[in-house]
Specification:
three-stranded mixed β-sheet; 4 helices; 116 residues; alpha+beta; single chain; GMP Synthetase, Chain A, domain 3
Length: 116
C-alpha cells in the first residue's frame, strides 16, 4: 500500500504541475508544486506549493483555491482513479527558509571574526 501511495503522490504532482502551468496564468511569480501527499483513502490530496516571491504566497494560494474545482475536473479526465482527490493547497515555505539559512551562513562567513 505504501508504494501505491508514493506512486499516486508522484503522478498527481506531475499532472498537477502540467495542468497548473497550462491553465492558470500567474503574473510576475514562479509557482512550483513541490509535493503532493494523498490521504490513505485517496480522497484528499494536500498540495504543497512554493512561490519564488514569498510575499505573493497568499495571493497564489487564493488563486489556486478559486480554480480548485476546474483543476480537479481536468485532473479527473487525465487520470484513471476511482476518486479524483479533493485538492487542499498549502504554501510550502521550505525553499524560502533554506535560502534564508544560506544567506545567514554567508553573512557569518564574510563578517570579520570578533575577538574572544
Amino acid at each position: 500500500m505504501k508504494h501505491r501511495k508514493l506512486r499516486v503522490n508522484e503522478l498527481l504532482k506531475r499532472e498537477l504541475s502540467i495542468i497548473v502551468a497550462r491553465e492558470i496564468a500567474f503574473e510576475d511569480v514562479l509557482v512550483t508544486i513541490n509535493q503532493v501527499d494523498v490521504t490513505p483513502d485517496l480522497k484528499n490530496a494536500h498540495v504543497f506549493v512554493s512561490v519564488l516571491k514569498p510575499e505573493m504566497g497568499a495571493k497564489v494560494i487564493e488563486k489556486l483555491e478559486q480554480h480548485r474545482a476546474e483543476l480537479q475536473s481536468i485532473l479527473g479526465r487525465h487520470l484513471t482513479m476511482k476518486y479524483t482527490p479533493h485538492l487542499v493547497f498549502h504554501l510550502d515555505e521550505s525553499i524560502a527558509r533554506g535560502s534564508r539559512i544560506i544567506e545567514i551562513m554567508r553573512e557569518i562567513q564574510t563578517s570579520p571574526g570578533e575577538p574572544e
